[in-house]
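Course assignment 3, question 2. Fill in each field.
Student: A.L.
Task: Predict the tertiary structure for the chain below.
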Amino acid sequence: QNGFDLSYVIDAYHNLNMGDKFFTSFFEKLVGVDYIRKEIIAGKTAEEIKAKWFCDVVKFKQQRKPYLLYQE
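Answer field:
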């Protein structure tokens, strides 16, 4: 399976009990959006979050298509 498994991040967030200190500004730079952090804090599952970003992935793949050196 391709992609990133958010369940590790979600488990760490809940198990470490760090609250807001768990997420640094670098986290949002890595993932590119703020709603993933908000969804994790709200208690969403990895599947629910992945379903939300699916549309973003499709849009990104369309944007990058002219710049690919090799076919997918």
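Instructor remarks: The chain has four helices and no strands. The first helix runs from residue 7 to 16.
Grade: pending
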